[in-house]
Amino acid sequence: MTSPAPLCSILLLAGGRGQRMGGQDKGLLEWQGRPLIAHLHALVRPLTDDLIISCNRNHDRYAPYADHLVIDAETGFQGPLAGILAGLAQVRHEHMLVLPCDAPLLDTTLLQDLYSAALAQPQRPVMVRQGEQWEPLFCVIPTLLHEPLLATWNAGERSPRRALLQLDAQAYPCTTHDPRLANLNTPELLASTMKPQFD
To answer: Is 50 exceeded by the pLDDT of residue 120?
Structure first.
């Protein structure tokens, strides 16, 4: 099946401190022979002509995987909402799909379905929810919400979940243990998780 391109702008979040990985740059850690960011790049590259990576270090290593890079407006690893705002300031399309760099088990079907849910109510963010648990780093944000989201940031909010819920985010429901949403954010998970053979 041929994927439509572009779906929207796509932002890969790779700007964190990597605390669970001992301070290493998580997107550049290898999994099954390639950096995590390379797995995400291979998945989303056919879906967009506007691929953005949020990174606060190692820009030269991330550059081959993106159309452009963004960095947080404030120093000191301010969290994923800072990366989301930096991405929204650069987008070329009306929606921005946000994904973390440590989720290499994602598939095209999930991304297309998430984007379709956003198009059904195009002025509202859509955020994955597993059972009662919101997953704010798997979301689609209308770019027209950049200013309201920035206002939320300027008011002191740093939680992407709370910020998106304040903007009337809709839920995209997934099962509680959907393996596609697994974050390989510890050395143990990185070492023990295998990619499904059928994928």
So the answer is: yes
Give the number of C-alpha atoms closer than 13 A to the C-alpha of residue 84, restricted to the C-beta side. 32
Q: Is the peptide bond before 104 cis (omega within 30 degrees of 0)?
A: no
Three-class SS state of 144: helix
137-174: b (≥16 Cβ within 10 Å) or e: bbbbbbbebbeebbebbeeeeeebbebbebeebeebeb
Asked whether residue 197 is domain-assigned, the answer is no
CATH number at residue 30: 3.90.550.10
Residues making up the chain, counted from first to last? 199
Confidence of residue 76 (pLDDT cuts 50, 70, 90): low
Say what the pTM is. 0.90
Look at residue 1 and tell me if it is in a domain: no
Q: Domain count of the chain?
A: 1
Report if residue 198 sits inside a domain.
Answer: no
Residue-wise pLDDT for 16-30, tens only, equals 654 555 567 889 988
What CA–CA distance (Å, rounded) separates 17 from 120?
35
